[in-house]
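Posted in: Structural Biology > Protein-Ligand Complexes

Title: Requesting predicted complex, magnesium ion in pocket

I'd be grateful if someone could produce the 3D structure tokens for the following input. Sequence and ligand are given below.
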Amino acid sequence: MSHKVLMLPGDHVGPEIVAEADKLLRCLASEFGLAVELEYANLGGCGVDAEGAPLPDSTLALARDSDAALLGAVGGPEWDYIERDKRPERGLLAIRAALGLFANLRPALLDPELVNASSLRPEVVSGLDILIVRELTGGIYFGQPRGIRTRADGVREGFNTLVYGVDEIERIGRAGFEAARRRDGRLCSVDKANVLESSELWREVMEGLAGEYPDVSLSHMYVDNAAMQLVRDPRQFDVMVTGNLFGDVLSDCAAMLTGSIGMLPSASLDETGRGLYEPVHGSAPDISGQGIANPLATLLSVAMLLRFSLDEGELAQRVERAVARVLADGLRTADLGGGQGQSVGTAAMGDAVVAAL
Ligand code: ATP
Ligand code: MG
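-- Reply #1 --
Done. Output follows.
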């Protein structure tokens, strides 16, 4: 049976980089027997312009009917001043919520060719390969009650609620254990259990799950220490699992350890393995239309899509090796310091990866 993949190019550089993913998937289909059908739909600013909503109903229906979706990026200055509900980013939040994508997986992998892009010294980061598993649909970003109110003394205050149910902790915990099992077998759960009750429960649930994963070694770390350790000695980590807010901050921090925003893929998964895959970077309006965006984060997102939603781990590795190969051959888009290697644009980089397959 053929896998269905929904392509969501989005805005600005989105369509440019998704075009390279399209080439890659078609090559995998014609040369390596991948059974895949590609559909296209609007998400983000393009949805607002063409169909009046950042997440058109037709897009959501197609997403529900697909095994996975690949997103370029959404947003741009032209949609900054429209009403809140029509902002492109709303479309992204809405599709994540509608599909129940609760687990956000963000690898931070430093290619040996790019050690000098990192803000840390090579002896601290070379060989860096960590994965952050972030809870995406709960915690303080969604907890009720929330709001801005006026106190009895007339002073305004803003408030949010950090709440996690055992069910929510268990399912993200399992995603963390499963990921660690597929990798180096080490899982670090990050919380603030010395201060927060929600973290106390978080830690208790993680400990409870540990018995089911005897092949994974579980450790715990307070989030403040985790931030420090990520910058001091990031290679001590294999997989980190954490809540929505802590994960938001730590995953951006980990991403920057690699120094290459154009290289970082991500996955957001539901319980069944359906997922939305996208580069970590945004729509880069400052460079769109020039054909110079780095497509590798998107091509590495295709590798994650193959691994997690289509169960095609071998093809995923093949894509990752092809990306490593073009870097080793010296090909560089402008963001990777195009000048030093062989400077290439978006399409040439995509073609090179396809050739390296
Ligand atoms: P968002 O709010 O959507 O995350 P942002 O403003 O944080 O967007 P990006 O759109 O990721 O940021 O862009 C940040 C910088 O990185 C910009 O200068 C952009 O040109 C550059 N950049 C982002 N993605 C790429 C890419 N694929 N290739 C080259 N440069 C990129
Ligand atoms: Mg950003």
